[in-house]
Specification:
By secondary structure, the protein is α/β, with parallel strands linked by helices. It has a single domain, classed as Metal-dependent hydrolases (TIM Barrel). Helices cover about 40% and strands about 15% of the residues. It has eight helices and eight strands, in the order βααβαβαβααβαβββα. The chain has helices spanning about 20-30, 35-40, 55-65, 75-80, 105-120, 135-150, 180-190, 215-230; strands at about 10-15, 45-50, 70, 95, 165-170, 195-200, 205-210, 210-215. The strands form two sheets. Strands 1-2-3-4 form a four-stranded parallel sheet. It has a four-stranded antiparallel sheet with strand order 5-6-7-8. β7 and β8 (about 210-215) form a beta hairpin. α5 (about 105-120) packs across α7 (about 180-190) and α6 (about 135-150) packs across α7 (about 180-190). The longest helix is centred in the middle third of the chain and has 17 residues, at about 135-150. The chain is globular and about 55 Å long.
Length: about 230
Amino acid sequence: LVDLVGADTPVHIHVSEQPAEVAEIRKNLGDTPIAWLNREFGLSPRWALVHATQATPAELDLIDDGAATLVLCPTTEHDLGDGRFPIERTPGASWGVGSDSQVSVSPAEELRLMLYGQRAAQGKRAVLPSTEHSDGSNLWQRTTQGASAVTGSPVGRIAPGHAADFVVLDGARPDFTGLTADHVLSAWVLSGQAHQIAEVRVGGAVVAQHGAHVDHSELAEGARAALSVLRS
């Protein structure tokens, strides 16, 4: 399958998420999951490793050496007790976030939990220091930069040639009063809620306003019908 999709297409794989998985792979394939992938295929920037919470120190070096990207899913990983990816061991890695089991579908909540988990594990607040951005804004910038590598698409920037997919925050809300643009973004990532989002645009077109999809009624009816069948 890897050969069929083309050399430039990202390959996503859930790997090294739980200890039992690592033990099973080691038993059947004779190596830990990420080490086996590297041996058989060679890690490279096209590989997007989802979770990697159980990566060994040697595997972290392989991730760095191959410049593989990471997809971290903090709410799922905390919900299942998977652990956390030791981001301090791979400071140059590119990463994005994902909802995975959809415990949450809020990117801000994923990033917030990721940051707080890293702070708790490392015993300090400055786990991703930046001289250019405040904590929450820096986390968002790092994530959107990684998103381009993870998806293989021109996303993560408002610039010519990039997808016009973005969120518009409600600047009239008191939460953001008196803040610079950098601190508005940081405030949303670290303490924001869905009601602070005014619009969501995909390809430049408005798809959601103030918490509701523009086709909410039609989509909700279809969702209810599908769930009724699945849960019957």
